[in-house]
Amino acid sequence: MYTLIKREIEDHIVYFLGALILSLFFTGLIIARGFGGEPGEILGVILAALGITFLAIATLGACALGTSQMHTDRNKKISAFLSTLPVSRNQIFAARVISGLLALLVLLAAPATAVETFLSTIRQEQPIYQYFTIEIFSAIYLVGLGIYCTGLMCGFSSSKIVPTLGSLVLSVVLMTIILIKGPGIETSIILLIYVSASLAYTWRKFNTTPFI
Amino acid sequence: MSDDAIVIESLVKYYDGRCVIDGVDLKIPRGCIYGLLGRNGIGKTTIIRILLGLDFPTRGKTYILGEDSTQLTNKNKGRIGYVAEGHNMISSYKVSRLINICKKLSMRWNDEFFNHLIEMFRLPMERYVRELSTGMRAELNLALAMATEPQLLILDDPTLGLDTVARRQFLELAVDVLQKDGRTILFSSHILGDVERIADRIGILAGCKLVVDCGLEELKRRIKKLRLIFEEKAPAELHLTEIVNQQSSGREMTITVANMDEQKQAVINTLGAESCEEIPMSLEDIFIECTRPKQKQAVVKT
Question: What's the domain range around A140?
Fold first, then answer.
């Protein structure tokens, strides 16, 4: 399994490096502005930064990663080759999804830590921020995951137009959910249902489609 | 444990409403080198892909090393070596990376044997797979399959793209692998000389069906081609069962009959031909007779 996950990461290293660079950039921004300015201004900066991060995940990163993983697989007959080795289709699929989860972690772990570190210093004065980090970052993570799953779902196609347009449209729908409803338990449940459904659909399709 | 490495039961496969395989039954015993022959696009690769679980049957069942092909465990996959038609490996990888991945994912890996093969084939480790010639890709694919010391080696037109020397080397290697106990080889090819050299059992696919499934020597014994010369015009029709092919021209009639026996010979004798001579047939001749587009569906099986 480790070999399969490592293979996925190495094959899509550009996405991981991109996620790391974005992550470091926003972490730097949060640290520089968060600990240097006035509290009110600081939170505004943080929220703006997170908003941009979120958009970056949604439009570029997760969606492209998912689409690329499946589209490349189909075009280069990667799974067709791997499944002739002692590897099951389930393992190939699981490794792919785990690598997607890791890419999102790479993107969000450092900014989340920076925000939490900053908020821990002002939490006693402003208890409203008690679960701020968990709520915001879990919502962003789930949106990223949902969009990533959309990419996986649409990417398993021989056409280039269908996966690109399909995943972009579904990504916009997902983004609007969080923009309208805001982070919270209801949004998380909706996103979890979407993630589960799209993963189940893609897994079934991956397991029942002949490898050409 | 079943004595058969491969079992195919009433296999049917449709592609886009077109029948490709129609009720194929086949058993390949362990330790056998089985040559599966057929014209291009007749379904050889489809059968192999279904056996490996890469494709799914429309109807019927296939078993490989005692397991249903659609539910092959990793343990059994580890006992199978596969050389694919066209040698589709991951073309965007360097040779060294592909080898590394295969080595890590395989259950057994004979480093010494693999290095010997790599040295023999002179494969460049730092080149991308897509940069290799067809012959080199075939050699790499073969080396990867052989390194796992498979109990069952499935070769789908493996010598396609190899030059004569490499083809001979490959065949010698295949025989070398078989010499180890219990190894089975399923060998699909359209190069009949290769099959004739190494196979001890032959299957011929024609018209979506397996029309021949028997030992090589037995096949040569049971399919006969006769040339009959008549005093006057040769009859247009001959009422005999299991005729593979029949052609009449002027005074001459040529017939190819499967499962030739005394009874059939007696029927032929009643035609009153001036002379009747047997034309010796090579495997290639038998193949051509069996796979003619309008051939009658005679079946040779044991």
Answer: 2-208
